[in-house]
Amino acid sequence: MRLSTPARVILGAVTALVLAVVYLPLLVVLANSFSTSRNLAWPPPGLTLEWWGRAFRSQGALDALLTSVQIALAATAVALVLGTLISLALQRQAFFGRDAVSLLVILPIALPGIVTGIALNNAFRTILDVRLGIATIIVAHATFCIVTVFNNVLARLRRTGTNLEEASADLGAGVWTTFRLVTFPQLRSALFAGGLLAFALSFDEIIVTTFTTGSGVTTLPIWILDNLFRPNQAPIVSVIAVVLVVISILPISIAQRIGGAEQVTK
Predict the structure, then answer these.
(1) CB-neighbour burial class of residue 106 (10 A; exposed 0-12, middle 13-18, buried 19+)
(2) Which domains does the chain have, with CATH numbers?
(3) 143 Cβ contact partners less than 8 Å away, ≥ 6 residues apart
(4) What's the whole-model pTM score?
(5) What is the pLDDT of residues 182-220, one digit of tens each?
(6) For 114-163, what is each residue's pLDDT tens digit?
(7) Average pLDDT in the 93-104 region?
(8) How far from 113 is each of 78, 120, 177, CA to CA, in Å?
(9) Hey, what's the torsion of the CAs at 119, 131, 145, 109, to 10 degrees?
C-alpha cells in the first residue's frame, strides 16, 4: 500500500509524538541520576557521579536486586517447564475443551494485575493458609510468565508440524527420545526467547508482588517505590530505575533479535 506524502508526514509526526511521550520521561530519569540536586529538580543544576557510587554501595538496593533476580529466575524456570508441557498437550493432542483450556492459560496476562494479586493473596492466606514470602511471589509470577513461554512454543509447534516426529516414531524412537532429539532442538530458540521475556516480566513486576510478598522480602521495584519519597533518596532511586530499565530491555531486545533472525533464515 502506497501512502501519499501528506499521509506519510502525518503518520511520521504522530509516531514521533507517541515515541516522545513514552521515552522522554525515561530520559528525564536518566538525567536525574546524574543530577547534583537531591530533589529531582529540572533542569539539573549540575552533573555528578556521586549517586551512582552510592547506589552501588546501598546494601538495601543490592539485596533487593538479588531477590528480584532469584525470583525472576525461579519463575522463569517454572514457566519454561509448565508452558512447554501445556503447549505440547494443546497442540499435539485433540480433546474436548482444548480451546477453553488455552483461554484459561492466556487469561492471567490479560487480567489487571491488581485483580490477580487480590485473588492470589486470598488463595494463599485464607484458602491454603500459606505464609507469604518468596515462594508465593514465585508462584504468582509464574502464573503470567507461563503465557510468554506458552505462546512462543505453541507458535513454533504450529510452524514445524509433526512430520519429523512421526518419522522418528516410525523409525522406532520412543516418546522421550523423539522429544530429546527431534522436538526439543526445534523448540530451543523459542524456549530461549520465551524465557527471556518471562524473566523481564517477572523482574519488574510490582502490583502482583505487593499482594503476594511477606514481611522482610523486598524486590527491586518495591524498594524503588518505598524509597522514592524519602529524603535524599530520590537521586539514588533514579540510578536504580535506570539499571532496572536496562535489565528489562536486554532480554526483550535479545528475544526480538532471535525472532527476527529466524524469520530471515526461513
Answers:
(1) middle
(2) 59-265 (1.10.3720.10)
(3) 108, 116, 120
(4) 0.80
(5) 888 888 888 888 888 899 889 888 899 999 988 888 888
(6) 888 899 999 898 888 888 889 999 999 999 899 999 988 888 888 887 78
(7) 82
(8) 19, 11, 40
(9) 10
Burial of 18 (0-12, 13-18, 19+ CB in 10 A): exposed
DSSP run (H or E) holding 24: helix 5-32
Nearest CA-CA partner of 195 in 46, 56, 81: 81
**Three-class SS of residue 36?**
coil
Amino acid at position 145, single letter: C
Would you state the cell numbers that stand for residue 63, as one nine-digit string? 539485596
Q: Among residues 198, 212, 216, which one has the least CA distance to residue 117? A: 212
Q: Answer whether residue 261 shows pLDDT above 60.
A: no
Cell output for 92? 499435539
Burial class (CB in 10 A: 0-12, 13-18, 19+), 189: middle
Report whether 34 contacts 47 (CB < 8 A): yes
Query: What is the signed CA dihedral for 176, 182, 186, 189, rounded to 10 degrees?
Result: 50
Cell numbers placing 54: 552510592
CA distance 106 to 127: 24
Contact present, 144 and 72 (Cβ < 8 Å): no
pLDDT band at 1 (very low <50, low <70, confident <90, very high): low
Distance, CA of 89 to CA of 158 (rounded, Å): 12
Q: How far is CA 228 from the centre of its chain?
A: 23
